[in-house]
């Protein structure tokens, strides 16, 4: 009986050592990823969406930021919305002083732990041949389709002119 008690007491320091050793391993492992720790495990999300005001039948553009805090690259494949006859992903490029828009049928990659900014003068979403007027203050609904995150519904306010 006394021998067993002694045996348990002798094992306790070993258990404590293993506990701290495991803690150190976990801390080192957690410090390794490039993604800020607070963001790990969160899903892809869209922030600050806006659309340009435009008249019925005209073209408009939508801008937003996609945050990818996951550990995997993802790709914004396409965008759709009932407000336009067609919606596509484009990029405005300065070609020797001439601004040109080029379509990105392959979509936009959002690397793991980084953001994709769609903004005026850069990558953006075109809303072509509007089925309705887009007035400032109004809200429209767009659907973004991601390779891994799937479809995401986004409410987009129409910005001031
Ligand atoms: Cu455009």
Describe this structure in words.
The chain is of the alpha+beta class and 161 residues long. It folds into 2 domains: 1-32; 39-157, Immunoglobulin-like (Sandwich). 19% of the residues lie in helices and 45% in strands. It has one helix at residues 2-31; strands at 45-51, 60-68, 74-80, 84-95, 98-103, 108-110, 114-118, 123-130, 139-146, 150-157. Strands 1, 2, 4, 5, 7 and 8 form a 6-stranded antiparallel beta sheet that branches. Strand 1 and strand 2 form a beta hairpin. The longest helix has 30 residues, at 2-31. The radius of gyration is 25 Å and the shape is elongated. The termini are far apart. The structure holds copper (II) ion. Residues 61, 90, 101, 124, 126 line the site of copper (II) ion (CU).
CATH fold label of the largest domain: Immunoglobulin-like
N/C terminus separation:
86 Å
Structural class: alpha+beta
Give me the Rg, rounded: 25 Å
Residue stretches low in confidence (pLDDT < 50, at least 5 long) are: 29-35
Strand/helix succession: HEEEEEEEEEE
How many strands in all? 10
Mean pLDDT figure:
85
Shape descriptor reads elongated
